[in-house]
TrEMBL record:
Transmembrane segments: 28-48
The keyword Transmembrane belongs to this UniProt entry's keyword annotation: yes
Name of this chain's protein: Proteolipid membrane potential modulator
Cellular-component GO terms for this entry: membrane
Domain of life: Bacteria
Location in or out of the cell: Membrane
KW Transmembrane helix (keyword) present: yes
Cleaved signal peptide residues: none
Family affiliation: Belongs to the UPF0057 (PMP3) family.
Keywords: Membrane, Transmembrane, Transmembrane helix
Amino acid sequence: MRLLIAILLPWLAFFTIGRPISGIVCLILQLTLIGWLPGAIWAAYAVSQYHTDQKIQRALGR
């Protein structure tokens, strides 16, 4: 679900993973039509890293 949000509303994806400063920067980037694609790619990558970090935390038992 977060990946879909990252593609459609990249700035919102950052807020869902607890990175509000990045969300604001992404929103500014998204306001330009050219910046939408890099913002979506950046958000999808951040969501992917968030899921990886969550898996590592569960594996370590934290």
